[in-house]
Amino acid sequence: MTKIVHVVGARPNFVKMAPIVNALSDHPWLRQVVVHTGQHYDDKLSAEMLSDLQLPPPDRFLGVGSGQQGEQTARALAACETVLLEERPDMLVVGGDVNSTLAAALAAAKLGVPVAHVEAGLRSRDWSMPEEVNRVLTDRLSDLLFTHSPEAETNLRAEGIDATRIHAVGNTMIDSLRRFEPSARERATWRRWGLDERGFVLVTLHRPSNVDRGDRLEGIVAALNALARRVPVLFPVHPRTRARLEADDQLERLRAGGAICLDPLPYLDFLSLELAAQAVVTDSGGVQEETSALGIPCYTLRPNTERPVTISHGTNALLGERPAAIADIELTTDPPTPAAIPLWDGHAGERAASVLLGALAEPLDQTGT
Prior knowledge:
Blueprint: E1 2-8, H1 11-24, E2 30-36, H2 43-52, E3 60-61, H3 69-87, E4 91-95, H4 99-111, E5 115-118, H5 130-141, E6 144-147, H6 150-158, E7 166-168, H7 172-187, E8 201-204, H8 208-211, H9 214-228, E9 233-236, H10 239-247, H11 251-256, E10 260-262, H12 267-276, E11 279-282, H13 285-294, E12 298-300, H14 309-312, E13 316-318, H15 348-360
Parallel strand pairs: 1-2, 1-4, 2-3, 4-5, 5-6, 6-7, 8-9, 8-11, 9-10, 11-12, 12-13
Helix pairs in contact: 1-7, 1-15, 3-4, 4-5, 7-12
């Protein structure tokens, strides 16, 4: 039996991988093994994520856990190598740019297992970002590179990647968004806090460049407090960000300033808030994409983005490295205008699955009849 191993390192990667797993599920001759490295893990949130995406539990959980970049990557590399030796797959599929993505791709390349990279070709040109290192190296190790926007293919071609390895399939994250958008809208999650639709700003911040420096984090808190004087601010706080806020005695200051600070939310609840937000402030790549697809104004607290299509075709604007700019973001009551981005049509997973099936070159008739 032909076998594909999918390696996922963080909860958002399930959103990207679920459409491909689903699209491949109708082929009885093909076995899929889903491996969660546990790079980012929370029992409750992971269970809710799988339930929201209508996925079964992963077949393998590696428990890699958090740690320094090298330490975490090394643990994931060793664990993924063991899985690949035991499973002997015909193809490895990885998505995104977390440490587990690179670790799994490196393990597979050294064992001679073909690698497919979902979300290939994204480039920020910022080598201070661990994600940039991960995505560039993963692309070099991959046999199939699935791109979701035209500039991604341009980046890969400029780096000497053979055009026959590059496949424009679209954005699988938007597949999940479109599939579950009606359910998320029906939840009306914002009502839990007595908020009105289009009557609040949603915030999500977690990148080390924003939250690991005390002076910068203090500036972010001050700006969010100023913003909260204009409009309600809803802030699901990433565990990394919460730890830094608590260490610097900033969390209570943030709450005292009016921000509604929450624990991280399951996928459908967060999507529900995105759908209803007046604007979103973030440093997340995926949120830039989701807000563009939904037509919600997005303000990214970064000097660059590996997703420029969200600026040229979407709703994203870069705030640079100026936390104070958060306080002055533009608020509008205009209805959302979803972005028309090529191949962000809800069928990217099907296109990726078709390429994978062709690469595996499995005979159409597996019964021998």
